[in-house]
Structures
1.
Amino acid sequence: MSQNLAIAADEREYPVENPVIPYLRQERIPHIWCPGCGIGTTVNCFARALTESKRDLDQVAIVSGIGCTGRVAGYLNLDSFHTTHGRAIPFATGLKLSNPKLKVVVYSGDGDLFAIGGNHFVHAARRNMDLTVICVNNFTYGMTGGQLAPTTPIGASQTTMPYGNFENPFNLPFLADACGAVYVARWTVFHVKQLTRAMHEAISKPGFTFVEVLAPCPTLYSRRNKLGDGVDQVKYYKERSVVKHGAATKEVALGFQGDIVVGKFVDRERETWLDGMNAHFEKVLGPRYRRYGE
Amino acid sequence: MKADPSGVLTGMHFLDGDHAACEGALAAGCRFVAGYPITPSTEVVERFASRIPMVGGVFIQMEDEIASSIAVLGGAWGGKKVMTVTSGPGLSLMMEHIGLAAITETPVVIVDVQRGGPSTGLPTLPAQADMMQVKWGSHGDYEIIALSPASPQECFDLMIRAFNLAETWRVPVFFMMDEVIGHMTERVDIPPADRIDVVERRWTTKKPGEYRPYAAGPDGVPDMVKAGDGHRIHITGLTHDERGYPAMNPAAQDKLVRRLTDKIRKNREALADIREDGVEDADVVVVSFGITSRVAAAAVDSARAAGLKVGHMRLVVVWPFPEHRIAQMAPRVKAFVVPELNLGQIALEVERAAAGRARTVRIGHAGGTVHEPEQILAGIREAAG
Amino acid sequence: MSDGTVQRGRGTVFVRKEICKGCSYCIDFCPTKCLGFSKDFNAKGYHYPDLARPADCSGCDMCGLYCPDFAIYGMRYRDLEKATAGAGTAADGAAKQA
């Protein structure tokens, strides 16, 4: 016992397991993400958010699109769906409407959710579909080798913007807010405690909830832009983040290595799509209507 | 099992094909439809939207056909029988999810009310020019099933079969209507629910931990679960092993893709549904499907009245193509005549199956209306030579 | 409980060195700065973390929250002793929930 309770260097019996392990498909670890990639950190926070939520994990489903963050679904020990590029949200919409007991979480990257999948995001938010969307924003297309993303800051170099980006990126919280999301927060992988809390709040709140997480892509964003390694990006997050809960989302746009406004920006109440359907049909169709999803 | 009576509108009706197809879907147990308006298919989802609140289920109009075609796959994994409905331009947008449905073996019915193309083409006028697209439109090797109804009554009857086939084989099943069938109004008899056989999903009997999502049975088809059943499934569009985990190597690819294709190809004969009329002693056999088969029947009658020995094969199941039957007949007929509302799609399959042992005469038509019987009759005369 | 080889802090860490990719998140963001790189490499050639200053470890598990590779986690001795006595811990709870 005393051996085990001293420093656990390695290859000893672990007296207790890493609390994240039960949430993972252990036979698929180690994962494919690069050294210093922040996606794994967000998975830790998500696992702890699930613990805090005390949900029955058999009733939690995770849906990803394509890309580095798109691989999250494959590592989580939940009902998990790795769909097509950009289409995680409409798949999740069908899954939720077909089986309303499920808590459905979309976990994907910025390119997947906001370039090819942008239209689905705006409509799911407009409808207040009961989904949580977690966007790991690394400002780039990692899986394909560092191309311009709809979030790449002006001035940053990417393989398809080799002289520096000149097109305006999305301000994701502003977009989510404008489309009607009921919960909008932004954190970075430096803010692990706050991120865990935000994920817990997002999965606990009915309706379309959105959490943006800034995470380093050392291989294809940081190094190309001479910003050092993953840990150097996280240090930048630490140094330049400004917590402003309730900030006006139009004020939280990101610039290249500029200040990062983080916090919970939106937390409001709206009827979900399914609740709206049930209430409306009961009103207009009366007893002929067969209430759905209960 | 028998149909759930809540979805069955038993009785004699006067319906167009689009509405009859919707009733077929409801009778088959379809309880989730995601769609996007597109002429000439829209009436299918309009009727579903008005009927489903009283039946118990959901309709959602998505933001586009890409979204519709994957929302229904989500709906299938949530446990419902699902359908989406479109026409050519929408079908073009759905291609990536036909591939996803094929590789994830998700049961789904896709209705294509065909109109003239390419592109926006002839929105309000008929064609049968998507026949190759549904077979080959998504990338990679896969198999699908396609049915071709020739009347509103068949839109009802065959739709039930479409769902049953999707559940049995876990492939996308295409319901290949056209603008004329969709908008043609005829008598449709809907039987009582206890006279409608429906195939339930192949739910696994295995417990969580024992179940492997892609371990197929002897028929090449795995049993299914739904999200929320405690199996903690992983479903991916990547090439996967029996656990559903990505397995990106040539051996796993070979095993998966061969199974996806073999489960249909090896059952080609069992899946075939050919309505034959006078083919046994025919010199010429007309091969047709859908609306064109009704014009072809008139042409065949005229040819027979003129003393020609003509048979007629109507393909109710177009995919998998019944090449075995064409191959059987090819050595003893002079020619096959293939009228279709395109410039030669299914005719290519007939040619391939006949393999030079009989001529194939194409009676192509670019669409916009149906053939004149005389066009087909002229082809028969030419073939009879 | 100490085995006498190190001065004990309030907690400790466990490292699965073979899945560590040496990103140094745990080392840089440890609130008590008790971690350092090992001198050794793992099989993939990465230096993994060591508990360099065990007396400073509080077992807070920030390293576990930061680690993108699920390769390190920390625990307070108080909780560890309860866990190993079968009394149940957060980790046990997660295992049950999962």
Note: Residues 81 and 87 of chain C are 9 Å apart (CA to CA).
2.
Amino acid sequence: MSGVAIVGIGMHRFGRTEGVSGRAQAVHAAREALRDCGLRFSDMQFGFGGSHSAGDADTLVSELGLTGLPFINVANGCATGGSALIAADSAIRSGQHDVGIVIGFDKHPRGAFNTDPAEHGIGAWYGETGLMVTTQFFGLKIQRYLHEHGIAPGVLATIAEKAFRNGARNPMSWRRKEIDAAQIAAAPMISHPLTQYMYCSPAEGAVALVLCRADRAREYTEHPVFLQGAAFRSRRYGSFEVFSPWTAAERADSPTVEASAAAFAASGIAPSEVDVAQIQDTESGAELMHMAETGLCAHGEQEELIASGATAIEGTLPVNTDGGCLANGEPIGASGLRQVYENVLQLRGDAGEHQVPGDPRVGFTHVYGAPGISACTVLTR
Amino acid sequence: MIAGKTTVDDALFVETAEGPALLGSRCTDCAAHTFPRQGGCPRCTGSAMEDVPLSRTGTLWSWTVQGFRPKPPYTGTEAYEPYGVGYVELPGQLIVETRLVETDPVKLEIGMAVELVLAPFRDDEFGWPVHTFAFTGVSA
């Protein structure tokens, strides 16, 4: 069994790019990733990729090159990028392939996502009566979480303030203007207790990564980043997830808890060793909950960590250093790979204005999405 | 029609002596409940489910208020907005997602006692109200 390294990274800027299709953004990201490690598309032995709303990833070969490689489409909602990465990890770790590419991209219309209940096996009544709304679920979930752990809602504005502060320092982010916590708290209420600026928006963007066998990484780059652990989990009976007409009274951990524990176990690295973390912040409450669910801190400890600045770029536990989903928006297919891209920049020491000081060695990523899925990675240099 | 009212989907309901109730499933092997009814048990992975009326009363487990008009497939009528949304714990059964009659955040509290009602959420093409299930506070 070989280890797995990330040797090339490429991104198309997130946000809104009028007149450029999601597929064109994906091609841009792929070419950047290939350039980054000095390879050509004809060197790729496999591809995994996906988008939610911008077309099939396997059709990108008409632009990148018709080389006959196996290119498999991945469709796993917010975990599309994470799933593509896990598939690539297996393809290399098993010895089947030596080098390949993963691509995540998307381009969504403005406004909250609208989803057809039938695609989730739920009756039409659920959508018709106004219950199939993702923003609503996040309000319900954080309301319960704050109640259970005795956390004051003020921390939600502080989290968003930090996201926009980091976004302002990241030239690739969408929202590059700082917004202070008071303004965030006073913004229109979308779904109590979450206001407009506490939610990310559907957006556009693309990320591509070139991966290879760890023992060959230095042929392609001077600064490989190693994928030490990657895991994906779906929901269990009793976890509380988006698009749930009901949940069990008998409670269970979320898929985040199991996916992160599995990724850490595979890597032999403990959560306490993480130097920089990118975690799903679909809205402020998600960052709060996921900090503890991933094992980076204990439930209830977040309030003090956030208030004291520990999660800032210069803090002891920097979280979402590129501004996260709040500042970058969420192109579903690309979002998970954006987190890995950011961690690779951080571990290489190439993050510029948003670089975490002190030569970070261990990076962690986490995505969460419908209908109750999570994918996590542990990365080292 | 359920209790003389047009509903969004009559298959969600069952008439009982106490009034309309939500119709769920119960696993005859492990006693897990689901809503709506389904053929497979998500807890023990068996398929021995039976129909069961769900409790008409419970306690509020979480809540929010929908602050904007959702996109389609939402079909609600503006006259019935904004609307509250919550999860209600039905004792010994499950926690069900529901519209809430109350829309004032100040009057909603986790743990409050609530009961099932049929509430209008849209008007049909002739202007008659179409109902769905909702929970409303009960005085102790």
Note: Chain B touches chain A at residues 8-9, 11-12, 24, 32-36, 42-43, 61-68, 70-76, 83, 85-87, 89-90, 92-97, 99, 105, 110, 121-122, 132 (CB under 8 Å).
